[in-house]
Amino acid sequence: MKTAFETRPGNVVDIDGDLYFVTKWESHRGGRWATTVKMRLKNISSWSMTDKVFSSDDKLNDVILERTVFEYLYNSAWVYVFMNGENYEQIELSEDDVGDMKYFLSEWATIDIQQHNWNFVWIILATYMKLKVVEALPLVWSSENKEVITNTWLKLEVPPSIEEWDEIVVNTWTFEFVEKVK
User: Where in the chain do CATH 2.40.50.140 domains reside?
Assistant: First the structure.
């Protein structure tokens, strides 16, 4: 258990049975040395954002998430299948669970899946991932970049030197081209 003052961005807390990811934290000192803590929280199950104000000594249930390495196997009819390489356990996640991370899931990609009480919470990807260009659209004269489509159906802008079947590195946070794999 942590106090609101000890909680920081990146922590997961349990408030009234719901899990929240702390995205922003600010402390404010008021009159008579009373300190309050304002937090921006993201509800893990509904992904809605909320702001809450706590007294600095309010107790919050700190949640430790289990983090397990899985390999992506395949998807079929809006279901994504992953396998734990140690015990060969497979889990299935819906397209809603995977969200935009689906654009970085190529066969046998290694990812971290966080769980709480054996329930899925979210996927953690490496910051940079390699993808293969499967289609390069023609360069438009008014543009400095051209659009490509990767093997995971991600569309993005790249320099004109990138061609079909090139491997590129993409930032998983910004969905932007980083470099061509040499």
Answer: 66-124, 128-180
